[in-house]
Amino acid sequence: MEQLFKKIRTEEIQDNVFKLIGKDWMLVTSGTPDNYNMMTASWGAAGVLWRKPIAITFVRPQRHTFGFLEKQPFFTLSFFPEEQRELLNICGTTSGRDLNKMNIDGLNAVEAPSGSVAFEEARLVLECRKIYFDDIRPEFFQVFDIEKIYPAKDYHRFYIGEIIQAWEKE
Ligand SMILES: Cc1cc2nc3c(=O)[nH]c(=O)nc-3n(C[C@H](O)[C@H](O)[C@H](O)COP(=O)(O)O)c2cc1C
User: Fold this and answer.
1) Where are the domains of the chain?
2) CA 53 to CA 140: how far, in whole Å?
3) CATH level 3 topology of 5-169
4) Any residues with Cβ below 6 Å from ligand 1, and which?
5) What distance in Å separates the CA atoms of residue 66 and residue 135, rounded to the nearest whole number?
6) Alpha carbon distance 62, 103 (integer Å)
7) pLDDT at residue 170 in the model
8) Backbone phi and psi for residue 84, each to the nearest 5 degrees, phi listed first
9) How far apart are CA 163 and CA 94, in angstroms?
10) Mean pLDDT over all residues of the chain?
């Protein structure tokens, strides 16, 4: 990881987080170098909680990535240059249950110090330690049209990760 990326403090991240997550999208990756899975996500957040820099990812329970996130103590969020958009489309439309995403050409795994996995091709990686999770609960919606997002009642589970290290491409 250290050969490809340089460590930066979260305060040094220049990107606009709304664009970064909502428009550029990210790969949420969980697992270890010999067994990991990743999915594209465009819903999430980053900020500060409990005096820590944190990122939050929202994952529906039917995702293959969900099982990894449940078991693993760390996950990464990887952000890519525009050239990788097609790979993000693939990871966002195919499931690790049907395609071993570890074999996708153009997404080369790199191990982060926590033992979690990011990608050589990323331009920014947030290495996260899972510190909290919860499920979206429909009884707490204050605006009722949000319910329409869940016709199958597959409410997201969200994982709050402490950003233990941010990495930027050299
Ligand atoms: C642009 C985009 C954004 C997505 N955002 C999310 C998200 O935030 N949460 C989620 O659960 N699924 C999201 N998905 C869907 C998953 O990426 C998709 O279902 C993927 O195939 C899951 O892979 P997996 O089964 O290997 O985990 C998104 C898909 C795309 C294309």
Assistant:
1) 5-169
2) 26
3) Pnp Oxidase; Chain A (2.30.110)
4) 25, 37, 39-43, 58-60, 63-65, 92-97
5) 12
6) 22
7) 80
8) -90, 10
9) 27
10) 98
Give me the pLDDT at residue 144, please.
Answer: 87
Report the Cα 132 to chain-centroid distance in Å: 15
- Written as six digits, the tokens of 61 are 């329970």
How far is the centre of ligand 1, averaged over its atoms, from the C-alpha of 67 (Å)? Answer: 14
Give the pLDDT score at 84: 97
* pLDDT score of 58: 98
Entry field: residues in the chain: 170
Instruction: Write the CA distances from 130 to 26, 29, 144, 152, 157, integer angstroms.
Output: 17, 12, 30, 27, 13
From the CA of 111, how far away is ligand 1's center (Å)? 22
3-state class of 82 per DSSP? helix
CA distance 158 to 58: 4
DSSP 30-73: EEETTEEEEEEE--EEEEEETTEEEEEEEE-TTSHHHHHHHH-S
Greatest C-alpha distance within the chain? 48
Q: Which tens digit of pLDDT belongs to each residue from 83-110?
A: 999 999 999 999 999 999 999 999 999 9
Pair of tokens at residue 126: 């947030």
